[in-house]
Amino acid sequence: MKKKLFGTLPTGEDVYIYTLTSENALVNIMTRGATIVNFKAYGTDIVGGFDKLETYLEDTSHQGAIIGRVANRVGKAKFEMDGKVYNLPQNDNGNCLHGGDGFDHKVWNVTDYSDTSITLEYHSFDGEEGFPAALDVKVTYTLSGTSLLIDYKAYPKGKTPIALTNHAYFNLDGFGGTIEEHSIKIYADKYTEVDEDLIPNGIRPYVAGTPFDFRTPHKIGERCGKDFIGYDHNFILSPERREILFGKELALIAEVSGKELSMNVYTDQPGVQFYIGNFLGDGPDFRGNTKQVFHGAFCLETQTEPNCINHGIGFYNEGDVYTHSTVYSVKKL
User: Fold this and answer.
1) Can you tell me the distance from the alpha carbon of 298 to that of 128, in angstroms, rounded to the nearest whole number?
2) pTM recorded for the entire structure
């Protein structure tokens, strides 16, 4: 494994990049945010990222980072646990998005690494960003061929909500154009309906007869436009088959195809946030001075349902272990 200094934060903390390699792939992981900086498969860089640390500090799109303590949105930036209300940062129209200045803003410690695997750990203190109880988090990235496993574990020191994900932005054709012509199949019979602030309204409609029906493959952009800007929704998974990958039994939940590459996504989570870069376009350039463009990437963020902690889901006690595994597996067409 190669390690290099990527930059130094205003706090004085050094940030490093570690490189994982296989015969047909290369993955760079940054210690700030335990971030996937790039994922190159068969010569094509399929994950968005930046050339400089300073650009990551400027950007607000969470490129490639681990998201926590609670991913996605928490309505009204608060939740109740055991009769007490906890207030969180209001960083998204009065709601809390991705844990405020969450795990993607923190420098993680590397505790194990090799040419094909790296483990990073972070200690979240009691009260960080308003969340109760301390939490030790461990994320391991493992590269095998052109498949990348993300394996999460978290150990609470008291009762607290936990819902982690990774916010990689993918373009299977490489960056600079849109992903509207990519074809995608999502194994989901229902999706989570949201209000104008993208907070779930409690309704979980069937996808049949809606623009959210990807049970058979469709081009990502074919039903966007006019009154529908694009997807930023949780799909409630109903997988049809499971496979053994990296020694784990995981469900196939999505299949995406570009011009020359395809990607299968596997997970043990109940949902996936399908987002297609509706807010890309005004941010800093990607690597190599590549412009951000509207619908220039897609995300498949495996997760529990958004705002789950306001519905009593996602709480863990001291002694519990949060686990979560996801694989992004790339193939040539």
Assistant:
1) 30
2) 0.97
Q: Which of 58, 311, 56, 39 is nearest to 161 (CA)?
A: 311
| Residue 129 near residue 100 (C-beta atoms within 8 A) | yes
**Parent domain of 291:** 2-332
Q: Rounded distance, CA 101 to CA 129, Å? A: 7
Closest CA to 185 of 213, 222, 210: 213
pLDDT at residue 234, rounded to an integer: 97
Q: What is the pLDDT of residues 213-225, one digit of tens each?
A: 999 999 999 999 8
Q: Is the pLDDT of residue 250 over 80?
A: yes
Find where tokens 């399929």 sit. 46
Name the residue type at position 77.
A
DSSP for 91-141? Answer: -BTTBEETTSS-GGGSBPEEEEE-SSEEEEEEEEPTTGGG--S-EEEEEEE
Residue 263 token pair: 């990607």
CATH number of the domain within which 106 lies: 2.70.98.10
Reading phi first (left if > 0) and then psi (alpha if -120 to 50, else beta), residue 127 is in left
Helices (H), the chain: 53-58
- Summarize the confidence of residues 161-179 as an average pLDDT: 97
Counted domains in the chain: 1
Number of Cβ within 10 Å of residue 305's Cβ equals: 20
* Residues tagged active-site: 167, 301
Tokens at residue 299, please?
């995300």
Query: Would you tell me how many other CB atoms lie within 10 Å of the CB of residue 227?
Result: 4
pLDDT for the residue 227: 86
Is the peptide bond prior to 241 cis by the omega test (within 30 degrees of 0)? no
Q: Which residues contact 46 (CB under 8 A, 6 or more apart)?
A: 39, 40, 170, 171, 172, 174, 261, 263, 330
How many Cα atoms are found within 13 Å in the side-chain-facing hemisphere of 37? Answer: 22
Contact, 37 vs 24, CB < 8 A? Answer: no
Residue 318: both structure tokens together: 């001291």
| Nearest Cα to Cα of residue 253 among 270, 262, 265, 244 | 265
Q: Which two tokens stand for residue 312?
A: 């009593």
Q: What is the dihedral of CA 228, 229, 233, 239, to 10 degrees?
A: 70
